[in-house]
Amino acid sequence: MAKVKDQFLHMFQRPDFEKNLRLWADRDGNVKKDILCDIYDGKIWKNFSNGGKVYDEEEISNEQKFFNKEHADDHLGIMINVDWFQPFERTIHSSGAIYGAICNLLRETRFKPENMLILGLMPGPNEASLHQINYYLAPIVDQFQSFWKGVTLDQTFEHSSGRLIKCAIIACCCDIPAARKLCGHYSANVSCHRCLKVATNGNFGGLDDINEWFIAKDVDDHREAAVEWRRCKNNEARKRHAKRTHVRWSEILRLPYFDPIQFLPVDPMHNLFIRIASLIVKQL
Ligand SMILES: [Zn+2]
What is the Å distance from ligand 1's center to 164 Cα? Predict the structure, then answer.
C-alpha cells in the first residue's frame, strides 16, 4: 500500500489540486444559516481547534481553529470509510477497503477516484471480525499521528520548496457494522453509539423512557473503558468487559483528538433505507 505521504505527494503535483482544496473557504454567503448543507456547516468543521478539541462557537477564536482560511489547503480534514465487497462471482468471498476522502475538496470532486486516499485493503475471505480490524488500522493510525503533528511534502505544484501538511481524521462514515468496529462500539442491536439509550428488542428499546433519551455518551468514559478492554488478560475477560461497558479498544483512539462519539454520524442507510425504521414502526 502506498504511504499516505506518497499519495499526497502525487495529488499535490496536479496543477489545480491546491486551488481546489481552498474553494471551501470562499463558499459561504449564499448558504442559509442554521441549515446544514455540507460538512463545513457543522460544529466539528467550524470549531475543531489546533489543540484537537471541538468547542462551542463562542469559545473559539479564528486563530485557534484548525480549519481556517489561512490554512485552507494545508490543514486537511479526512473522512475515513470502511466497507466490504464481493470481488468474485459465484463464491462468497468478502474483501474490504479502508479509504479516506479529503473534506477540504468540494462535494463534486471529493469522491472522485483520483482524490481518494487508499489506506488499507483487507483480502478476506471473511470480514474482519470485531477488533481484528485493529491489525489493519494500526499502520494507518501511525501515519495519521505524524500528519497531526505535520509532515513536509518536498515539493508541490504551488510550493516548489515544499510545504508542511497537517491532517485530522474528523469523521468516520460507513455502514453501522463497519463504523462500530472502527470506533470500538458494541453491537448496534444493543446500544446507541451517541447516547445512553439501550435496545431491549433488536434495534428497538421502546418509547417509555423518552425523558431519559438523548443523554450524550461521554468521550472520556469511552476512552477509559477502551483502555481497560486492552488490559483484560484473556478473551473471556474481554467479552465480559465489552458486554458490560459496550466498548472495545480501537487503534483509532491513539489519535489524541479522535472523538468516537461525535465523529461518527448516524447511518441513514440502515436506519432509514433498509428496514430498521420499518421494523420499529411495525413493533409500535
Ligand atoms: Zn442515541
Answer: 39
